[in-house]
Amino acid sequence: MTDIKTRARPAAVMLTAASEARIAELMSKAPEGAIGVKLSTPRRGCSGLAYSVDYVMQAVAFDEKIETSGGVLYIDGGSVLYLVGSIMDWVEDEFAAGFVFTNPNATGSCGCGESFTV
Q: 64 with 11: CB under 8 angstroms?
């Protein structure tokens, strides 16, 4: 019998240190029963898809699970193909704060940056 060698596959989304720190902050204030945060791409906005980050209370079979130093990030199984190779960052300035995504799969986005197309 042949030995089967497996290797870890890279995560669909890479996280910056700032986004991991934000996940840690969110988890420190999470509602009871939250097991992590979940990134998904619901259909909305003028370009079709948007980024959404919410607390998650239970794992779903086809979601991707990424262990970070700040907590667990789940990626919605139906959204993974739209997000492969993306970088998730947390950016704050004097006027706004939020997760920012560099997505190589996005072929366009709306003027306000709230939604994207693939």
A: yes
